[in-house]
Task: inverse folding
């Protein structure tokens, strides 16, 4: 009976440990694939956003060396940048348009918002102060990946769809390796 | 856990194949009902709640399975700073309050009947012969692993990254339904965790696991929470659960064989040294999803869904 109980405890502890291991692996890959970031508008400098839900670096660095093994084998060249938090940080309701500048590679955009205009890259409705929308970018790099430490570099820009004003310019660097990631952070930091 | 000592009986009769088939067919119907309720393009529940609470769920949302997320709210139980956020969407209370209460009242019927993500690999598994499947029963302590995952799921965000959204079978069920309706875009992007989720959910713990419910057993926090609520309260005899009636049991093990979540143990008398002198049938209420396959499949009608007598 005692050994049965010990066995149960062992299975329980082993499962918790496996979940931790998987969580650690996910932590390793979360700046390499399916990178989630926060993006605020109108904003400049660090308040523009950054990695994670509350990111406040003012830039985003994606390190392809941290891509998970399966993705590295099957589709290393398509990078997903995703924000659930494209956030109206101002005090004025606005309609917005987004664009990617300077990457030099094809980018596909998506949004779950019903009013999303895929051709204009616009949210068709007015977004209230404090409101969030979800936007995803899929950057397609050449395959095999380009040589060098910096694979792609550009800005995600949020515009006022009515006036055309640039509300936020958010630098993004896609790099290879920890050293390049640190360097890109230095160069992008406002 | 309910322990019953069945009486001696003669040769085991054949299982009630027709009744079992009918039950599975009915559950297959509920699979489509679940799709209509929770999954885009229908997402009837999301639309209904959006209509009742327009302020909390703007009409500009495209409701899908994420509108009634079954994983994040369970994770938020351990994150008090997220409790206020849950008020943004009344459906966030479904997996942590509504369904556990329903599970206390009637068992985790959602899991057995209304969860398409759970039953999809089970139904797919029907095309794979049993000899190609592994049976976790006897290999692992299923209950320990199930609740070990739940505990790990709750605390891992404090020490590493969450495994909530990156390993979400509901998302891939939604992506599958969306693809059937013409939106294949989610399938065009390959992620490591996405591939792992599909392989584990559909194949490893689905089609090639006896019962096809390995994901539900080991990796579904919402299911674990419901089963915990149902299992802990199953000692109250007035609550309906799957119960075993010993009077005419032949301990034929049909119930054990047909159970998709491996929740039934039938031990023959004196099967091992020190075993009980009479055969025992145990329904593990911490695993049972009240699909009723065992009830319909029992050739002598010894299992039933209801109050204890």
Result:
């Amino acid at each position: 009976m005692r050994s049965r109980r010990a066995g149960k405890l062992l299975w329980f502890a082993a499962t918790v440990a496996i979940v931790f291991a998987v969580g650690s692996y996910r932590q390793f890959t979360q700046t390499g694939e399916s990178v989630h970031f926060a993006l605020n508008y109108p904003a400049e400098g660090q308040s523009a956003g950054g990695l994670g839900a509350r990111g406040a670096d003012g830039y985003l660095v994606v390190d392809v060396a941290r891509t998970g093994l399966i993705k590295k084998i099957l589709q290393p060249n398509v990078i997903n940048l995703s924000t659930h938090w494209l956030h109206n940080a101002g005090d004025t309701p606005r309609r917005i348009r987004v664009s990617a500048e300077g990457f030099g590679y094809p980018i596909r955009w998506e949004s779950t918002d019903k009013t999303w205009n895929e051709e204009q890259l616009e949210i068709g409705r007015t977004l209230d102060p404090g409101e969030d929308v979800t936007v995803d970018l899929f950057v397609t790099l050449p395959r095999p990946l380009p040589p060098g430490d910096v694979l792609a570099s550009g800005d995600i820009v949020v515009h006022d769809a009515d006036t055309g004003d640039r509300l936020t310019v958010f630098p993004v660097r896609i790099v290879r390796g920890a050293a390049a990631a640190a360097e890109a952070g230095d160069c992008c930091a406002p | 856990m309910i322990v019953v000592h069945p009486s001696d009986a003669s040769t085991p009769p054949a299982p009630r194949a027709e009744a079992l088939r009918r039950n599975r067919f009915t559950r297959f119907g509920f699979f489509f009902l679940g799709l209509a309720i929770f999954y885009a393009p229908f997402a009837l529940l999301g639309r209904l709640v959006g209509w009742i609470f327009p302020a909390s769920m703007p009409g500009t949302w495209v409701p899908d399975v994420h509108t009634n997320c079954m994983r994040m709210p369970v994770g938020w139980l351990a994150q008090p700073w997220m409790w206020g956020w849950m008020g943004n969407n009344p459906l966030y209370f479904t997996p942590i309050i509504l369904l556990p209460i329903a599970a206390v009242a009637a068992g985790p019927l959602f899991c057995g009947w209304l969860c398409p993500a759970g039953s999809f690999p089970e139904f797919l598994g029907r095309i794979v012969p049993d000899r190609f499947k592994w049976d976790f029963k006897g290999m692992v302590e299923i209950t320990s692993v199930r609740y070990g995952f739940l505990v790990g799921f709750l605390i891992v965000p404090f020490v590493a990254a969450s495994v909530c959204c990156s390993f979400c079978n509901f998302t891939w069920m939604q992506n599958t339904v969306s693809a059937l309706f013409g939106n294949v875009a989610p399938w065009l992007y390959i992620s490591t965790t996405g591939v792992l989720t599909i392989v584990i959910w559909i194949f490893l713990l689905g089609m090639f696991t006896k019962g096809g419910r390995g994901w539900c057993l080991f990796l579904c926090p919402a299911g674990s929470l419901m089963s915990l609520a149902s299992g802990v309260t199953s000692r109250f005899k007035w609550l309906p659960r799957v119960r075993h009636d010993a009077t005419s049991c032949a301990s034929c093990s049909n119930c054990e064989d047909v159970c998709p979540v491996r929740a039934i143990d039938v031990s023959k008398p004196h099967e091992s040294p020190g075993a009980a002198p009479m055969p025992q049938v145990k329904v593990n209420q911490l695993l049972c999803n009240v699909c009723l396959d065992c009830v319909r499949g029992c050739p002598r009608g010894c299992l039933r869904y209801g109050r204890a007598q």
Summary: The two ends of chain B are 15 Å apart (CA to CA). Chain B has 15 helices and five strands. Chain B has a mean pLDDT of 90. The interface with chain A takes residues 59-62, 64, 140-141, 143-145, 147-149, 151-153, 155-157, 159-163, 166-167, 185, 189-193, 195-196, 218 of chain B (CB under 8 Å).
